[in-house]
Design goal:
Blueprint: E1 5-15, E2 18-28, E3 33-37, H1 44-51, E4 59-65, E5 68-71, H2 83-94, H3 120-134, E6 138-142, H4 150-165, E7 169-173, E8 183-187
Parallel strand pairs: 3-7, 3-8, 5-6, 6-7
Antiparallel strand pairs: 1-2, 1-4
Helix pairs in contact: 2-3
The structure holds adenosine-5'-triphosphate.
């Protein structure tokens, strides 16, 4: 895996009139995972969007070495295509044929189903497949376990653990406990409370 780093210093984020967080620092090296926690609306998704370069912080800097992959509530698959063809669109761009995790993710019998008909958990499984296929060393995961049944949630955790063991970085915003070795936690307090 390509070497990677992700750090942020003195980050502040405002959304509308609300200051969500300030003076936030983080630094992740290869093999490290960070669990971002906090009550609803404290800015976990906003932090991920800042780290992904999709949202400008009010203050502070983000430094990154290595490609990143983002998993959030937006599924980057054509809703009108059957799942197999929607994934194949990316396979052509990525110049690859698919990923070995398709079967454990329970997707092989869904390839003929239009993406818009997939259930919540099936969509999340498809998002995990896309995440794996990108082979990016840095994973930014926003509620990756939401909608997954117990087996799929355990598999998702295993995938994150394997990714970090292989030298990747994972930053995971989740309300659910995560069972990952060496996981550190960043709790975003509710400044408005
Ligand atoms: N485009 C926007 N304009 C103004 N406010 C926004 C915008 N997007 C999000 N917010 C507000 O920013 C705050 C933080 O949202 P964010 O989604 O980052 O929180 P979160 O910690 O991920 O929440 P949850 O745990 O519910 O997923 C919320 O109060 C939300 O209403």
């Amino acid at each position: 895996m390509d070497t990677c780093r992700l750090s942020a210093s003195d980050l502040a984020c405002r959304r509308g009139e609300r200051l969500l967080f300030r003076r936030l620092d983080l630094a992740l090296s290869p093999g490290e995972a960070l669990h971002v926690t906090g009550p609803n609306g404290t800015g976990k998704s906003s932090l991920i969007r800042i780290l992904a370069g999709l949202l400008r912080p009010l203050a502070g800097d983000v430094r990154r070495a290595g490609r990143l992959a983002l998993l959030d509530g937006n599924l980057a698959l054509d809703e009108h295509l059957p799942l197999g063809r929607a994934l194949a669109f990316w396979h052509r761009l990525d110049r690859r044929t698919g990923h070995a995790a398709m079967r454990p993710l329970g997707l092989t019998n869904l390839l003929d189903v239009p993406v818009r008909f997939l259930s919540t958990g099936q969509r999340k499984r498809a998002a995990l497949a896309r995440l794996l296929e990108q082979e990016a060393p840095i994973w930014l995961l926003d509620e990756p376990l939401n909608g997954l049944d117990a087996d799929a949630a355990a598999l998702a955790e295993t995938l994150v653990g394997t990714h970090c063991e292989a030298g990747g970085i994972a930053l995971v915003a989740s309300h659910q406990p995560l069972a990952l070795p060496g996981l550190s936690t960043l709790h975003l307090p509710d400044y408005a409370a």
